[in-house]
Design a protein that fits this description.
Blueprint lengths: L20 H14 L10 H11 L4 H8 L3 H10 L1 H8 L11 H12 L6 E3 L13 H13 L4 E5 L6 H12 L5 E6 L6 H12 L15 H10 L2 E6 L19 H12 L5 E6 L5 H7 L4 E5 L5 H10 L8 H7 L4 H15 L3 H5 L8 H12 L3 H13 L5 H7 L6 H13 L3 E6 L2 E6 L1 H25 L7 H4 L10 H23 L2 H15 L4 H4 L2 H9 L1
Parallel strand pairs: 1-3, 2-5, 2-6, 3-4, 4-5
Antiparallel strand pairs: 7-8
Helix pairs in contact: 1-5, 3-4, 5-6, 7-8, 9-10, 13-14, 18-21, 21-23, 24-26
């Protein structure tokens, strides 16, 4: 028999050598869906096991012996399930099965039959010629879509982490299991009606736009396509339709119908999958996941050490024992690592140790632009928390941040803002005993610290130029130095990373330290008549700069 194989494995895993099992599972699951009596559309683990046994050439009696079951029980199970699915899949008459061997013949015939090539429209999907690691993530995502029949999936993570590249590879591996594959980018915030019309026209496989159909285009019509056909639709850069200046995941005004699309795609009964990539998790996923719908969320972290080492080598850096420290400093972010590789090769002749000896992190203009975009999207309270985490420069209790924030906010509002930062993948969480502590990723820490330094410097210059301290914001809202009595080590780091760079920038501008001291004393004089609420941390910060 063509599909005979080693019978030593009770799990019959050797069937995978001859068959694309993922595709066969998906095809039989579609056949199962047609049989209305079966409420669970995907194949059960028992059905998959029996299928693999048959593909390896086992009779029901042989399978029963291997699985420690009765032959009659296995035969009855097959008659109610796989036999019926295969009949439907191979377009045979119901109950026409006469011999278990027919299963092998019919499936072999089905596999050889010419299949209809899926309709594909990759839109603005990028080419991914080189791809590193992510095998565990790919396996999980494929299981969610093919086995769990996930209807709505989001992949979220900070910029440069590789969401789009992973999604391209995922779709390439799944494309044969779908009738339609469509990729659209929301980077430039296209109106919902434009995307909806575009998707429906693509699903109807129309080459030119038939404007007579526009009046009949609706969200319900799109869902009809998702029910009738097996469609895989990707909406990349979903953050393009999400609002900045608010907590994470809220839609722009006028773009709320995108949220309705997510809710309906997650709640409705259909056989398709809508995949979202975003730098922040849309709020709709929170309620949909909680309610138990076929919805999945995947936060993407950096590359694992072996995969990141391979990236460094492809970028031209030989293996060095310091590779691990470099990768950890950038938390395995693929884009950040590619950019720093360029710096290490150009300035340090590829010597990672010499680069790390500089005790700094190079962000690079491209990555800085990504962080600028994410930082600009934060709410006022989120920015306050980010600045405080950068100043603390260590793992921090939420309560400690709450106590230091001068804004009039409740503890629940602070927790909501912290959770929002987590949904943006901008904070790191660490559990110590029964305590949960938070900090920033090293790259984000470096970025926010530099942002803070620039803002403080500009506030001081404006105060000096206009003889007015009303513009103080960072100086008033944040203590740049922790009291040495609290933690002398942290105090020393803050002096080195925050106070000294600010003073150096001022020295460069004013040339003479005596002038700086003169202007600082002027600022202190202007703060004398202000209320304690107005002054905040400003006087304390100026005194620390004077020291």
């Amino acid at each position: 028999m063509a599909f005979m194989c080693d019978r030593s494995s009770a799990e019959f895993t050797e069937a995978a050598n001859d068959w694309n099992l993922d595709k066969l599972y998906a095809d039989l699951a579609q056949a199962k869906q047609v049989l209305a009596a079966y409420k669970r559309r995907e194949l059960t683990e028992t059905e998959k096991l029996h299928l693999r046994g048959l593909l390896c050439g086992y009779s029901p009696a042989a399978m029963a012996q291997k699985l420690h079951k009765t032959p009659r029980g296995v035969e009855a199970d097959l008659s109610k399930t796989l036999y019926r699915y295969v009949e439907n899949l191979s377009k045979r008459n119901p109950n026409s099965l006469s011999n278990w061997r027919n299963i092998i013949d019919w499936l072999a015939e089905y596999r050889k039959s010419p299949s209809i090539k899926p309709y594909q429209d990759w839109g603005e999907a990028p080419d991914v010629p080189v791809f590193f690691g992510r095998q565990e993530e790919l396996k999980t995502l494929k299981e969610w879509i093919l086995s769990d029949r996930c209807r709505l999936l989001t992949m979220f993570g900070m910029g440069g982490i590789g969401k789009t590249a992973l999604t391209v590879k995922l779709i390439q591996q799944l494309q044969d299991s779908f009738e339609f594959v469509i990729w659209r980018s929301l980077r430039h915030a296209p109106p919902f009606e434009e995307i909806l019309t575009n998707l429906i026209l693509s699903l109807s496989q129309r080459v030119t736009t038939d404007y007579s159909l526009i009046s009949t285009i609706s969200l319900s019509r799109l869902i009809e396509y998702l029910r009738k056909h097996r469609c895989l639709i990707v909406l990349d850069n979903y953050e393009g339709v999400l609002r900045g200046g608010n907590l994470a995941g809220q839609h722009l005004q006028g773009y709320e119908k995108y949220g309705e699309l997510l809710r309906i795609a997650g709640q409705s009964n259909h056989q398709s999958c809508l995949v979202i990539t975003s730098r922040e998790k849309p709020q709709e996923f929170i309620s949909l996941s909680r309610e138990g719908f076929a919805v999945r969320c995947k936060e993407l972290d950096g590359l694992k050490l072996p995969d990141a080492q391979e990236l460094l080598q492809v970028q031209g850096l030989s293996y060095q024992k310091e590779c691990g420290n470099l990768i950890d400093s950038y938390r395995g972010n693929p884009l950040a690592l590619k950019l720093v590789c360029h710096t290490i090769k150009n300035l340090f002749e590829g010597n990672i140790k010499q680069f790390l000896a500089q005790n700094t992190l190079v962000i690079g203009e491209i990555f800085r632009n990504l962080l600028d975009e994410q930082f600009d999207r934060l709410s006022v309270l989120e920015k306050e928390i980010m600045y405080w985490l950068a100043i603390e420069n260590r793992l921090c209790f939420p309560l400690r941040m709450q106590e230091k924030i001068l804004l009039t906010v409740s503890r629940s509002e602070s927790i909501e803002a912290l959770e929002s930062l987590s949904r943006r993948s901008l904070v790191e969480k660490n559990i110590e005993g029964e305590s949960v502590l938070f900090t920033l990723q090293p790259l984000v820490m470096r970025y926010v610290t530099k942002h803070l330094i620039v803002q403080v410097y500009e506030e001081i210059l404006q105060a000096i130029s206009y003889q007015n301290v009303d513009n103080f914001e960072r100086l008033r809202n944040h203590a740049l130095v922790t009291s040495a009595d609290e933690d002398s080590e942290v105090n020393a780091i803050q002096l080195r990373l925050i106070i000294t760079p600010i003073k150096n920038k001022l020295k460069e501008f004013f040339r003479e330290e005596s002038r700086i001291a003169y202007y600082f004393n002027q600022i202190l004089f202007m703060l004398q008549d202000k209320s304690p609420h107005f002054v905040g941390y400003a006087r304390e910060n100026i005194l620390n700069l004077l020291k």
